[in-house]
Specification:
The protein has 622 residues and is of the alpha/beta class. It is built from 20 helices and 10 strands. It has a 6-stranded mixed sheet with strand order 6-7-8-3-9-10, sandwiched between helices. Helix 7 runs antiparallel to helix 8, helix 7 packs antiparallel against helix 11 and helix 15 crosses helix 17. The structure holds adenosine-5'-diphosphate and magnesium ion.
Length: 622
Amino acid sequence: MLKANDKLEVSIVSQDTQPTSALATHNQRHDVKARYYQRKSRSYGLIERMLRSYLRPYLWLLGISIFANIIVAATTGALPWFIQQAIDKVFTERDEDMLVLIPAGVIIVSIIKGLATYGSNIIMSYVGQRSTANLQRDLFARLVRGDLAYVGSQHTGEYISIFMNDATRLRDTVSTIIVALARHLLTIFALIGFMFTINWHLAMIYTVIVVPMGVVSMRRLGRVTRKASRQGLEETGGLSTLIAETLGGLRIVKAYGQEDDQIERASSVVDRVLQFTMTALRARAAASPAIEALAGVAVGAVIFFGGYQSMQGNLSAGEFMGFITALLAVYQPLRSVANMQTVLQEGVSAGERVFSILDQEDHILDKPDAQTLTVTQGALKFDAVTFKYASRVTPALYDVSIEVPAGQTVALVGASGSGKSTLLNLVLRFFDTDEGKIEIDGQDVRDVSLLSLRAASALVTQDPFLFDDTIANNIAYGQETFDMAKIEAAARQAAAHDFIMEMPDGYETSVGEGGARLSGGQKQRVAIARAMLKNAPILLLDEATSALDTASEQQVQQALSELMKGRTSLVIAHRLSTIMHADNIYVMRDGQVCESGTHKQLLAQDGVYAELHKKQFADGDA
Ligand code: ADP
Ligand code: MG
């Protein structure tokens, strides 16, 4: 009964799984029953979790709100009583004192009710907004702290959609539910309680007819709503992904003349969102008329039985009117409570998505006794490293041993897909090795704190990432203090100073989203300046120049040589000419080291490296 993809349910209802799984049986009937409990516990589990983790700090506010709602319920319940008194005392007995007292009472009670409603609404809105804000903060933290393996497998747009849509929907659900439970249920109790004090026969008839029928029909509608709502949210996520993708690849879309096709894709997603939203809305819209129809049945029944009782002399006109007033007043809260079921279902689907992200477990963590990495020399060593990406069948690295002695430059070459970048990722613990270990100055990277590990090395990739900020801030990224002199010195060493000075605002020029206002070579030099400023003892270069043209490559290469001075460098190079002078070269093939040695030795070996070298010279690429 608990399918593999129901993992989430289990985590939400962890306390409740016992009874659910106890019901697990292959018997069809039991299965239905079990599903029912599961669904129920899932909703309650969600609310309980929201209360526990996000509403707890505001419990006192919720308390005040509930108190205000008790006042709302009591004042609502008082109204039919006033009507009853008015008919009996004023209209029938013609009591002149009551002529003044009753209207005055009605006005006072209505004002109190208005104030209490206002107060509780304000409090609930505040609590709702505040807790969503906290939820969004946590989601963002999950995004930033999450394992790359997990975050990398998420769709950008979907994440944004969960962040924006699901989190807000969850808030609306939780505040609606709390108000519905506190205000409307109490009001219903107050009104029905009043009905019982007037005439319990009539009240019994009312509760026996209306309440059960309402509950059954609402439950059915709720089921439809939740499914449609979840599908709608998923499609909305798909739409966000499409938008993000289109923005990112707009040039490609245009270059290949795929505008219409892209619009077509978007409109089919939009249509599906509409379809699911309408299903949910239809179910929700059906809830109120259903309750109204039921109320009509109830009014008819009460007129009939009430009229009969009145003919017997058991019911005064005032009591009858009071009863009918209470019955009509119970409409609105009953409708809200009926809606609560559907709103709750929508919230459950939003909550499942939100918590599925919050519940994601991280594996790349500091050990409890993690030491700070102490870099004395900066020697880097891969010892029989085997690693497989979770989504792959074959390992990306198999039994790789590489030594990068302190202060030396070691190069990795090999066809694309041979595992070079993966090796660099493992040094920074973006992933952990499956077997073997990586050591820096004899310390296993898994034994030291992530912060100290990542502070010890600078990574420059083929596609440098710049934030939408000024050049100076991009260079100073990750620095505790902003020192313009140091920034400029780093930029000079990275051969970036000259072009920066030619920009309209110099170092204060904003680079645009992703550095869009700079050329590839300029971005790369800013990234190198960033690495310069970081001044880490270990340098990891992943095809840092391969995206550049020859002219800018030369400038960047110069900057890199400057950066590599006196540091332990592990360099992945696309063009062999750039690593000819490396102290040692490892040739990778299919995740394994197949050759190693200096440029000369490898050429003399006349193996894979020599082959690569010949090819590049023939192509004029070296
Ligand atoms: P290189 O840098 O030598 O081109 P990579 O280290 O990037 O090679 O990739 C090695 C292998 O691992 C390739 O088969 C590649 O498809 C796979 N791979 C790389 N990154 C991931 C990832 N995030 N998830 C799954 N497989 C990956
Ligand atoms: Mg690579």
